[in-house]
Structure formats: structure tokens, C-alpha cells
Amino acid sequence: MVITRFAPSPTGFLHIGNVRAALMNFLLAKKSKGQFILRIDDTDPERSKQEYVDAIKKDLEWLGLEWDRVEHQSARLDLYDSASDKLRSKGVLYECFESPSELDLKRKKQLNMGKPPVYDRAALSLSNEEKLNLKNERGNGHWRFKLEQNRIEWTDGILKDLSIDAASVSDPVLIRADGQYLYTLASVVDDIDMGITHVVRGSDHVTNTATQIQMIKGLGGEVPNFAHHSLLTGPGGEALSKRLGTLALKDLRDAGIEPPALCSLMARLGSSQPVELRLSLDEIAEEFDLSTFGSAPTKFDEKDLYPLTHRYLQTLQLKDVQSNLDSIGVPKTLAQSFWDLTKENIDTLNDLSDWWEVFSIGAEPVIKEEDKEFIERAMSILPAMPFDEHTWSNWTEEVKQHSGRKGKSLFMPLRLALTGKERGPDMARVLPLLQNIKAKQ
């Protein structure tokens, strides 16, 4: 059985980069009728907040990414205790006492000498007496995993054959001086214990994966199938990290982006498959194929979500949006006509309120200086309400006879005066819904 996981830290809101990893792992499990685990990485008690746990769950539920079970790493500390004891007994977990500033100085010296900034393992040469003195002087140290300094090789689900020289990588810190377990250890222990078979994550984790493969083997676990997707950039190739504050899922949701649009885009972005709207996660999962993804940085532009959302809205029936119409005050008697008229002229459901304002209280008219007299005359011969489906054609024909205007010079000024917009639904269908006309006042 395919078992995947998504392991966010509850230290902030989910953003578009997180969503890509969550979606890929979900689709991989769903396609194979496997399991998808939500694993909350909350081993940092100071930064982890329940409000973010709740927000993460809300975002995933909104997208439809249902998890088979949820786990909290803060409730699994005994397992990490046992794993660290096992690694100590094997002599591959050792205590270090360097301060951050000392480590930084070492890295700078190595770089100045043209060497990779790799931890020099000075702690391994400390005598028991030296360790005791340092502990008395500085308190507990941090703990590192001793890597076997050979090549670590694996076949990646996206990047294909990978090989990393462990000698070029620092021994990873697994436990902080205050006793907090870091992600590397917790993730490895959980992946083994939960039987995780596939891990999809960003290519910035490739080096982490190499060290984790050694740790998994050191703990006697089965190495999952790893796949590293490309990193997202902005539309101009700029680092997306600078814009993540505007790309939180809650912000996209508030902007009116619909889940099928977001999932359809993110399931294909960076692959050789064209982006196409799919209405359900079942459809998206059926077509999902990791082998179609490439390694090159992938451009993401949130503007691409609006055409997909627009196309999705065209598939909705009145019952699907009735609550939205109720919330902006559309009477039940006009709801069907209003939805049929506006759904082709909105990018998101948020746009409905603008259209209802046009119909209910009247639009602020847009009248060019050269059209003032024309509009004033046209409004003077506009029939009294209520209008019907023939009002527009009969009225514009009469205006045409009086003014001599035709085509765009006739219709566009009238549309702008009645709706305040250059584009919109057929005016013959708009007029019967108008409750008020400010241009006539």
C-alpha cells in the first residue's frame, strides 16, 4: 500500500509552496487507493500554535485534501527518545559544544581556504574530561549524527539517479542543547514507524534526503521512495519566498479562488502535461504522473488561477451559489435570472456583489464629456420600469433615430451610463433586472 504524508510546522499559515507538496502526496496516495497522513511537526513548543494547526486543517479541508489520520509529533517524544538512545549505543550520535558564533567562525575560515563549510567533527576528539568541563561551563551540548563519509545514492521519482558525497555534508544536528528534537530525527523516526512508502517534497531537501537515508538505514528502517519537485519562482523568475506573504492559502481563498482551479493548476505546474481544469480530485488523481515533472525552476503566477476559476464557475448551478446570492441580498425571485446573467461575466464569486449593486441601487454612470447631451436625451426617452426583454432593442432603435448614431458609438455610451462597465452581459438581458438607474436621476 502506498502511504504518504504531509508534515507542516504549525508556525504560520500554509502558502502555495506548502500546498504543492501536500497535493502531490495526497494525489499519489489517492491514485493508488493508499493512505495520506497529516503529520503536525510541533516539536517546537515556543513557535507552534494551535491557531495554525486549526488553519492548516481548514485550508486542507477547503481544498478537499482529506487525511486518513492525523498525528502530532509532540505526542511521539518517547519514540524519539528510543531512537536517539539506539543511535548513541551505535556510536553515531555524538555531543558537540560549539556556540553558534564559533561554528560561524569555523565556516568562514573554511570558505576563505576554499574548502566546503562542513563541520570538522572536533567534538569527536574531546576527552571525557574535556567534555565534562565544557558541560560544566556551557551546559548541555547539541547532538549530531555521524555520517558515513561515502557516496549516498538513490533513484529519485522526479530527478532520477542522484548521488551525494556525504563527506561534503555536515553531520546533521538532531537534538538541540535544550533537548528539543529537530525535524530531521523526528521525520525519520515517524517515516519508519508509520511505514511511509513515498515522500514528495521540494528539491531544496535533496541534501536532507541523503542524510536521512543513512539515518533510516542506521535505525533499521525501510527507505521510502523519494521524489523532489522543482522550486516555484514568481512569474519573472524571481524568488517566490519574497512574496509568500501574499500567497497564503487563506488570502487566495479570500480573493475568490476556487479549490478545483488551484488543484488543477498545481497538479500540472512544472510537468509536461498541459494545465487543464478538472472538477474533482478523483479526476486529477487519475491523471497525476510524477514522471512527467522536470527539475527546472517552475514559474507560478497567481493570475493564472483566475481564468481557471472563471471556467469552474461556469459549471455551477444556482443551488451551488444560492448561499452566496443570499448573503448579498439577491431576492429568491431574481436569483436564477441573476446567476444565469452574471456567471459568464465574473472571475470569482466575489464579483457578484458588484453586479448586484449595479442592478439593485444602480451603477455610477461613466459618461464622457462628448456624450453628455446624447445620454441626457437617451435617458429622457427611456421607458418607465419594469423593463422586459424587448426594451433594449426598442429603446436603442428610437435613440438611433433621434441621434443618428449607430454601432459602438450608440451602444457603448449607453452601456457605460447604465452599468458603469465597458463589458458585461447582453444589455437586452440586463435591463429587465435593473431596479434603479442613477444616470436617469
Keywords:
alpha/beta; 18 helices; 43% helix; three-stranded antiparallel β-sheet; 441 residues; Arc Repressor Mutant, subunit A; 12% strand; single chain
Principal-axis shape: elongated
Q: How confident is the prediction overall: mean pLDDT?
A: 94
CATH class of the domain at 361-440: Mainly Alpha
Q: Count all strands and give the number.
A: 12
Low-confidence segments: none
CATH architecture of the domain at 361-440: Orthogonal Bundle
Rg result: 31 Å
What is the straight-line distance between the termini?
Answer: 70 Å
CATH T-level topology of the domain at 361-440: Arc Repressor Mutant, subunit A
| Secondary-structure element series | EHEHEHEHHEEEEHEHEEHHHEHHHHHHHH
Residues in β-strands, percent: 5-15%
Share of helix, binned = 40-55%
Number of helices: 18
SS content category: alpha/beta
Major sheet, described briefly?
Answer: 3 strands, parallel
- Across the major sheet, the strand order is 1-2-3
Summarize the structure.
With 441 residues, this protein is α/β, with parallel strands linked by helices. It has a domain at 361-440: Arc Repressor Mutant, subunit A (Orthogonal Bundle). It has helices at residues 16-31, 50-63, 77-89, 100-112, 128-138, 183-193, 206-218, 249-254, 259-266, 281-287, 305-313, 318-328, 332-342, 352-360, 372-380, 391-403, 408-419, 427-430; strands at 3-6, 35-40, 69-72, 93-96, 142-145, 151-156, 160-165, 173-175, 198-202, 225-229, 232-233, 298-299.
What does this protein structure show overall?
The chain has helices spanning 16-31, 50-63, 77-89, 100-112, 128-138, 183-193, 206-218, 249-254, 259-266, 281-287, 305-313, 318-328, 332-342, 352-360, 372-380, 391-403, 408-419, 427-430; strands at 3-6, 35-40, 69-72, 93-96, 142-145, 151-156, 160-165, 173-175, 198-202, 225-229, 232-233, 298-299. The protein is elongated. The protein has a domain at 361-440: Orthogonal Bundle (Arc Repressor Mutant, subunit A), CATH 1.10.10. The strands form five sheets. A three-stranded parallel β-sheet has the order 1-2-3, with helices on one face. It is built from 18 helices and twelve strands. Helix 1 (16-31) crosses helix 10 (281-287), helix 9 packs across helix 11 and helix 12 (318-328) packs across helix 13 (332-342). Strand 1 (3-6), helix 1 (16-31) and strand 2 form a beta-alpha-beta unit. By secondary structure, the chain is an alpha/beta fold.
